[in-house]
Specification:
Strand content: over 45%
Distance between the termini: 38 Å
Order of helices and strands: HEEEEEEEEEEEEEEEEEEE
Number of helices: 1
Oligomer: single chain
Largest sheet: 19 strands, mixed, barrel
Length: about 300
């Protein structure tokens, strides 16, 4: 029996089962995760604490300090009732925004997940509400995002998959203006060892090609090239690699066409305690203060 294909943004995602679903806006997510995730230099310091109560409610506190000196954070609580397919998440940020998300999975119809996300700013009384739907069937995966308070607007994407080949598209629609606001297309191919994807976004004006290769259980490598047909004639390029040093630690490295090189190291110090450190060096400005260093601590229990 065929399983749902990846979503639009995950078309380049390698998997042990090439028909495992991913979202249509994630066609090159595997290489994007390799290039962007776990590089800790982007903020000066990041702290995350997670815990789970005996009744199944999980809590998390997140905080970060930017290189400019500003700080931000949030506290979040999540309740999951797996037998009923219900998840309730509530959070409160340091910018005084209250967020509530209610999820109902596989209850309205088989393969359908519905999500209602609301946010409220007490100081200004601003209120937002979004309805998100995801539908998965063999060889088909579609999503719809509705912003009920702005426009309203709708963003829809879909992916068809067969024997590792994936074809997807997405479009934005403004209900009030009765007009399509944006559209994108993508095609990809994925097998357990590697994946590749070509995308055309921003109304088919920005073109990207991504490649991901799981060399072995310890080494991953990937690259992404992009070109904006409405901008300069230059092609942006990023190359990244990940090496698992042992079961408890890994190192990552990447470099882009602008000569910015980044290194990161992540280690599980003990059960529930993870530490990460990263550095970014502008090789074109070695004598200037353009370099960045960041740390990451995560505690879970």
């Amino acid at each position: 029996m065929s399983l749902p294909p990846p979503a639009f943004s995950d078309i380049a995602k390698a998997s042990n089962d090439v028909s495992i679903p991913v979202r249509s806006t994630d066609l090159s997510s595997q290489v994007s995760q390799l290039i962007n995730r776990d590089f800790y230099h982007t903020v000066a310091a990041n702290l995350e604490v997670k815990s789970k109560a005996p009744n199944g409610i999980s809590f998390s506190v997140k905080g970060k300090s930017s290189h400019e000196g500003s700080t931000s954070g949030l506290i979040e609580g999540k309740y999951v009732e797996a037998s009923a397919g219900i998840t309730l998440t509530q959070s409160w940020t340091t910018t005084n925004v209250l967020n509530t998300k209610f999820e109902l999975d596989n209850q309205i119809a088989k393969g359908l997940k519905a999500e209602l996300a609301m946010d409220f700013v007490p100081s200004s009384k601003d209120f937002g509400a979004k309805l998100n739907l995801a539908f998965k069937q063999p060889n088909f995966h579609a999503r719809a995002f509705f912003d009920m308070m702005k426009g309203p607007t709708a963003n829809i994407d879909a992916v068809l998959g067969r024997e590792g080949w994936l074809v997807g598209g997405e479009a934005g629609y403004d209900v009030q203006k009765a007009a399509i606001t944006r559209y994108s297309l993508a095609v990809g191919y994925t097998v357990p060892q590697y994946s590749t994807a070509v995308t055309a976004t921003n109304n088919l004006s920005v073109f990207s090609a991504a490649y991901y290769h799981k060399v072995n259980s310890e080494v991953e490598a990937g690259a992404k090239a992009s070109w904006d047909s409405k901008g300069s004639n230059n092609v942006g390029l990023e190359v990244a690699s990940k090496y698992r040093l042992d079961p408890a630690s890994f190192a990552k490295a990447k470099v882009n066409d602008r000569g910015i090189a980044s290194l990161a190291y992540n280690v599980l110090l003990r059960s529930g305690v993870t530490f990460g450190v990263g550095v970014s060096v502008d090789t074109q400005k070695l004598n200037e203060s353009a370099h960045k260093v960041g740390t990451h601590f995560e505690f879970s229990g």
